[in-house]
Amino acid sequence: MNQISPLAYIHPEAQLGDNNVIGPFCYIDRNTVIGDNNVLQNSVTINYGARIGNGNEFFAGGSISAKPQDLKFKGEDSVCEIGDNNSFRENVNISRGTASKGTTQIGNNCLLMENVHVAHDCFLGNNLIIGNSTKLAGEVIVDDNAIISAAVLCHQFCRIAGYVMIQGGSRFSLDIPPYIIAGREPTRYCGINIIGLRRRGYTAETIDLIHNAYRLLYSKTVRQEGIDAIKQELPITKEVEYIIQFVQSSQRGIIR
To answer: Which residue of the set 107, 125, 138, 226 is catalytic?
Structure first.
């Protein structure tokens, strides 16, 4: 049974699962689907097009599946898809998609801290931590297991790889490759995310291999030359392959 405050508004066409808690002053629009065991604390707005899984918690002031802040948006039908077991702290704003991709998507087990903004058509993976007041512009991709600190500004169309740590206050318009720490001003490569990798069970041998891959990559001024050096001198494990594929596929270029 759902627990719904008498001070909340739920559109008759909204679809709610079971065992949800809907606090006072929440607003749930039409064309929304909410699964089971979600908590909307108070003053949370679930806008048109939201597709929410199970076990999520939304703190006060959140706006989910908001109209995109994109002048090219002409009211086309689009959605915002959210997975399971996420925590969205106070005043988190997530836009739904546009005609470009049609959806904004967030995976499972993510923590988005206070005042985070996720713009239209972003694709966020699983097990992410995104710090207070960080802003992701349109069509940004964030791979699994990334940590983005507070007050980070990410340009549209960028991709942030998995297992990275981005230092607070960073701003960038290039892609962030896997397993590294990114920071300083301007944002650049600051070494391997050793502590994060150790916490996730990576061995010293694997961490050393990742370090050597970046040593070779950044020793060359031409991206392809760095990739060729990695292929010639290192065993191609899944971690090295991830680095190679990410760098080769980067449309904006990677930080250095």
So the answer is: 138
117: Cβ contacts below 8 Å, ≥ 6 apart: 92, 93, 94, 134, 135, 136
Asked whether 177 and 247 are in contact (CB, 8 A), the reply is yes
Helix axes 204-218 and 223-233, enclosed angle (nearest 10): 140
Q: Is 49 a catalytic residue?
A: no
Q: What is the pLDDT of residue 249?
A: 97
Give the global pTM. 0.96
Respond yes or no: is residue 138 known to be catalytic: yes
- Are 65 and 47 spatial neighbours (Cβ–Cβ below 8 Å)? yes
Q: Among residues 121, 125, 175, 183, which one is catalytic?
A: 121
Looking at residues 52-57, what average pLDDT do you find? 98
Rounded CA separation 132/141 (Å): 19
Model pLDDT for residues 68-95, shown as the tens digit of each residue? 999 999 999 999 999 999 999 999 999 9
pLDDT in tens, 171-223: 999 999 999 999 999 999 999 999 999 999 999 999 999 999 999 999 999 99
